[in-house]
TrEMBL record:
<dbReference type="InterPro" id="IPR004609">
    <property type="entry name" value="ATP-dep_DNA_helicase_RecG"/>
</dbReference>
<dbReference type="InterPro" id="IPR033454">
    <property type="entry name" value="RecG_wedge"/>
</dbReference>
<dbReference type="Pfam" id="PF17191">
    <property type="entry name" value="RecG_wedge"/>
</dbReference>
<keyword id="KW-0413">Isomerase</keyword>
<keyword id="KW-0227">DNA damage</keyword>
<dbReference type="Pfam" id="PF19833">
    <property type="entry name" value="RecG_dom3_C"/>
</dbReference>
<dbReference type="InterPro" id="IPR012340">
    <property type="entry name" value="NA-bd_OB-fold"/>
</dbReference>
<dbReference type="GO" id="GO:0016787">
    <property type="term" value="F:hydrolase activity"/>
</dbReference>
<dbReference type="GO" id="GO:0006281">
    <property type="term" value="P:DNA repair"/>
</dbReference>
<dbReference type="InterPro" id="IPR014001">
    <property type="entry name" value="Helicase_ATP-bd"/>
</dbReference>
<dbReference type="GO" id="GO:0005524">
    <property type="term" value="F:ATP binding"/>
</dbReference>
<keyword id="KW-0234">DNA repair</keyword>
<dbReference type="GO" id="GO:0003677">
    <property type="term" value="F:DNA binding"/>
</dbReference>
<keyword id="KW-0238">DNA-binding</keyword>
<dbReference type="InterPro" id="IPR047112">
    <property type="entry name" value="RecG/Mfd"/>
</dbReference>
<keyword id="KW-0233">DNA recombination</keyword>
<dbReference type="InterPro" id="IPR001650">
    <property type="entry name" value="Helicase_C-like"/>
</dbReference>
Length: 697
């Protein structure tokens, strides 16, 4: 039975080898199962006939019927257009064709009744419909009312007569063949509890819905099933890991308490305290911790990581913190060294730039256990780096490391895996976090430290540049520093570099007495570091840069971030850049400069930035604008191989589906109960490599 859905698409009536090759290449449709899961992306309402009098220019596509009268052509032969008038009992409307005139002429007969479908457009007080679909009215098509599915297709497919209508016809043929072969993939209890349609009803209902209500039920069933299986897979991974990997037990809080009472220079926020409790609970549970810590730039993730390392060190093990760049690793090291020294804890930094002689000492101290904490970059992953006993591995800005790189870090212990804390300052929308990191526990720091003022963000057009320059001058006169960031887009690095250097020159002309630094990705690392350090030491007052500073140095005195061509940045990037300022107690500002010409999405992005500082709200807007694939980068895209669900819009269904998967696994972790037979056979039928277990295969 499964073999039926694996049948090659060329064997479906109406396809054949040539069209099959195109469907393979253009839409990734190789089998009957692939075609059945090529779902419509919108629907045209053909459930009713409108009268001519009801029509107006604001309506979407409409269906009307009437008799054709008066067919005429106009214009020179090469630009000939065809007009026909359709009349019903309420009035008359003009139909017009600019292409395929000869072909349409052969079809049209005056006085005959037709069914017409198209978009009414107003020209002054008159309406017309350009290039309508038109067919003779028969008893059969007059009685068939349904929502007409529209499928994604491509220009190459259309040239081979595989437009949306043709794909719809293939779907109808396939569904008739498949009707008795579609088996149920969810347990009856789930279907009853959540009032779901059967799998067969859902597939018929999503491709050929008789009405809106049926369409909603069909799409809910298919989205629920898809998200349920994604969550089931992630939760089973988590269960397997928890059962398989026992964790080291850390209960000694003596170091932590001493640091908290004697050396912590500020009060922790309630959010930080809550997260530390969650992590402590994991570390003393006897199960290996895998936790994702989310928090906006400047929310105090690093100090939380240090406090958790004290738990590990106090229990006789070591801690490691890995960052994606040398600048960030050095910054973490300098921040933590002060605390470690005050506590008498040994700490070291290991990056690509560490001298050989220093490396040798670090390697020895790590192996002997004399080194308590090490901070570093990818250099930590080398085989020569060995720990006496690693207790906690912290990975910062984890999306910059591949899964294989991360796993290399926690295989440094031979006997027992270390606890793992993954940190990110990129706010991940809840729906995306539940899907990408559904096998991790998630903690969120959703509060900024006391005394931090929210960054004031404004949007200015190019024409306001003199005003912006005046404001920059005022801030520098008050002793502050300023970032000015230009976009750098890979396709045209030369052009963009010129753009940056032009910007640098005009800044130097506008501020002749003010020292300026410039940093971009084409510079050698030591030149880049030299310029960065000049800015850190306040030797320069303005830093002109590309996005290389997105994850970068902490300069508390920098209080203004100017982003040129802000419309060319994504929301996540704008938010990350804004987070470079606002590190000190002074009021900070972010100025977004753009062209007057803005796309609809560009305008939404800039308005969102001006409206809110909340990273999670920004991430949600970003998800709705861009979709999950762009947000997660290529490493994770396999997880989001979704066929019908949309994480930007289906967050509520995801939560319901995750709840259902948790409930099911709580009651039957091995899925051995007879009621879960459908789930077992669905999982077994999937290829071992498949991420999306809801597929028909």
């Amino acid at each position: 039975m499964q073999g039926f859905f694996d049948t090659k698409i060329e064997f479906l009536k109406g396809v054949g080898p040539q069209k099959a090759a195109l469907l393979n290449k253009e839409l990734n449709i190789f089998t009957y199962g692939d075609l059945l899961q090529h779902y419509p992306f919108r629907y045209e309402d053909r459930t009713k006939f409108h009268t001519v009098r009801e029509l107006n220019g604001t309506m979407p596509y409409v269906q009307i019927k009437g008799r054709i009268r008066n067919i005429e052509t106009a214009g020179p032969p090469r630009k000939r257009r065809l007009k026909a008038y359709l009349r019903d009992e309420t009035g008359e409307i003009e139909l017009v064709w600019f292409k395929g005139v000869q072909w349409v002429l052969q079809k049209l007969q005056p006085g005959v009744e037709y069914m017409v479908f198209g978009k009414p457009t107003a020209f002054g007080s008159k309406l017309n419909i350009a290039h309508p679909e038109i067919e003779l009215l028969t008893h059969q098509n007059e009685d068939v009312s349904y929502l007409h599915p529209i499928y994604h297709t491509t220009e190459r497919l259309k040239k081979k007569y595989l437009d949306s209508k043709a794909i719809s016809k293939l779907q109808r043929t396939l569904l008739q063949l498949a009707e008795h072969r579609i088996r149920e993939t969810l347990p009856q209890k789930l279907i009853a509890d959540y009032r779901l349609l059967s799998k067969k009803e859902a597939l018929f209902g999503v491709h050929f819905p008789q009405n809106t209500e049926l369409l909603q039920k069909a799409s809910f069933r298919l989205k629920f099933e898809e998200l349920f299986y994604v969550q089931l897979r992630l939760l089973k991974l988590k269960l397997a890991r928890v059962d398989k990997f026992k964790g080291q037990i850390f209960q000694d809080t003596e170091l932590l308490t001493r640091f908290y009472n004697e050396h912590l220079p500020f009060d922790l926020t309630d959010a930080q305290k809550r997260v530390i409790k969650e992590i402590y609970h994991d570390m003393k549970s006897g199960k290996q911790m895998n936790r994702l810590l989310q928090g906006d730039v400047g929310s105090g993730k690093t100090i939380v990581a240090f406090i958790c390392m004290l738990l590990a060190v106090g229990s006789g093990t070591q801690g490691v913190m890995m960052a994606p760049t040398e600048i960030l690793a050095t910054q973490h090291y300098q921040g933590l060294k002060e605390y470690a020294d005050s506590m008498g804890i040994t700490i070291a930094l290991l990056t690509g730039s560490t001298k050989k002689s220093e490396r040798r000492i670090i390697h020895e101290y790590l192996k002997s256990g004399d080194l308590n904490i090490i901070v570093g970059t990818h250099a930590l992953l080398e085989d020569v780096v060995q720990f006496k006993k690693l207790g906690l591995a912290v990975v910062d800005e984890q999306h910059r490391f591949g899964v294989a790189q991360r796993s290399k870090l926690w295989q440094k212990n031979r006997d027992v895996y270390p606890h793992v804390l993954v940190m990110t300052a990129t706010p991940i929308p809840r729906t995306l976090a539940m899907t990408l990191y559904g096998d991790l526990d998630i903690s969120v720091i959703d509060q900024l430290p006391a005394g931090r003022k929210p960054i004031k963000t404004v949007h200015r057009y190019d024409s306001n540049r003199l005003r912006v320059n005046g404001f920059i001058k005022e801030q520098i006169d008050e002793g502050r520093q300023v970032y000015i960031v230009y976009p750098l887009i890979e396709e045209s690095e030369k052009l963009d570099l010129k753009h940056l250097m032009d910007g640098y020159e005009s800044i130097c002309r506008s501020f002749p007495d003010i020292p300026v630094s410039v940093v971009h990705g084409k510079m050698k690392p030591d030149a880049k570091d030299y310029e960065m350090q000049r800015f850190v030491k306040a030797e320069t007052k303005i830093m002109v840069a590309t996005t290389v500073i997105e994850v970068g140095v902490n300069v508390p005195n920098a209080s203004v971030m100017v982003i040129e061509n802000a419309e060319r940045f994504g929301l996540a990037q704008l938010h990350q850049l804004r987070g470079r300022v606002g590190r000190g107690a002074d009021q900070s500002y972010c100025i977004l400069i753009s062209d007057y010409k803005l796309s609809k999405e560009g305008r939404v992005r800039l308005e969102t930035m001006v409206r809110t500082n909340n990273g999670f709200e920004i991430a949600d807007t970003d998800l709705q604008l861009r979709g999950p694939g762009d947000l997660t980068g290529t490493q994770q895209s396999g997880v989001l191989d979704l066929l019908i669900a949309d994480l930007g819009k289906d967050g509520k269904i995801l939560q319901v589906a995750r709840g259902a998967a948790i409930g099911l696994l709580d009651a039957d972790p091995d899925l051995s109960h007879p009621d879960n037979r459908n789930i077992r056979s669905q999982i077994e039928s999937m290829r071992k490599t498949a991420v999306n277990w809801s597929r028909i295969s």
